[in-house]
Amino acid sequence: MQGSRLITQEDIAPLARGCAVLGTGGGGDVRTGAIAVRRAVREHGDVPLITLADLPGDALVVPLSGIGAPTVGHEMIQSAEEPLLIRDEIERIFGRPPSAIMSSEIGGGNGVMPVAWAARLGLPLLDADAMGRAFPEVQMVSMYVAGLPANLVVMADVVGNVVSMRPVDGLWAERIARAVCVAAGSSALMADYVLTAAQARGAVIEGTVSRAIEIGRATRHESDPLGALARTLGAKRLVAGKVTDVDRRTTGGFARGTVTVEGVAEDKGRTLTLEIQNENLVAIEDGRALAMVPDLITVVDAQTATAVQTEGLRYGQRVAVLAWPCDPLWRTPRGLETAGPRAFGYDLDYTPVEEIA
Predict the structure, then answer these.
(1) What percentage of residues in the chain have a pLDDT greater than 70?
(2) Is pTM, for the whole model, over 0.70?
(3) E strands of 167-207, at which residues?
(4) pLDDT at 150
(5) Is residue 216 part of a domain?
(6) In the listed set 152, 187, 211, which residue is the last one of a domain according to the structure?
(7) Between vectors from CA 290 to CA 284 and to CA 296, what angle results, nearest 5°?
(8) pLDDT digits 0-9 by tens, 116-133
(9) Quick one: 164 and 229 in the same domain?
(10) For residue 222, what pLDDT band results from cuts at 50, 70 and 90?
(11) Which residues form the S-Me-THD N-terminal domain (predicted)?
């Protein structure tokens, strides 16, 4: 693997910080994920980070992610056996072992944990993902936008149940996988869109693991971490203020609700409302959307610029809300149909965040 580098213990903390930012509030807890990764790397060794160019065309790539409500995953820790169960099932179905692991979403714990899964399985990690951020639903991946069939979904839960399904498309993959996830207690590990390296070319978002590490390192030794993070992301600060209301509930395998941030200092008198479904979907002020999916909206601590996930938001927190452009794939007609505001039920025509700003 000529182009590979190694993910070492020194990379785990910045990877976790970067994935938390890219998680836009969802994707699972990076703190427990980082602990699991440190242990896996310590026990099994550093993980090669490779590109698609390092793989032969017929190599099997397995996108892995946790599925469910982040509020549940924060308390119900995954079993170390889940990735092994999925690996064994994929090898049984295809008659050959996987060649690499890929994160289905680089955001949140789902961007961090693939390092642990790869280490435990003795496989390299692909420097790519299927979102460039985090999204709540199974079909909201680049492979679906690229038109690849959802040929196989394999799920395993904490007690050892394994479910394999062959949905007719990504929308059915979401419906069936969500039902299985709810039956498993709203938390499970999932491999979806298992594909070859040849199929992955042009159908995944490359370089996102390296990008997450870069974002995580952006605020080191900075006197203005918030400014440094915004510059690295190319982000606009929507508001800086205090969390004054959190309406959050777990239903149907998702964390849903709204969060209200009242501005302070130069933003005094302003009120921003965030609509959430695992992730921050729309930011609204005075009935006007300031940012919306598929662009990224992240809440960070006002002093440290550390991302705050939706399940971690509490009354009185001092925060800033940042927004920046998504990967161009999501701005295509099929990308917007899949993960634009109307895909989540909002009567909004998508407007890029940089145009609103």
Answers:
(1) 95
(2) yes
(3) 187-192, 195-196, 205-206
(4) 86
(5) no
(6) 211
(7) 100
(8) 999 999 999 999 999 999
(9) no
(10) confident
(11) 10-165
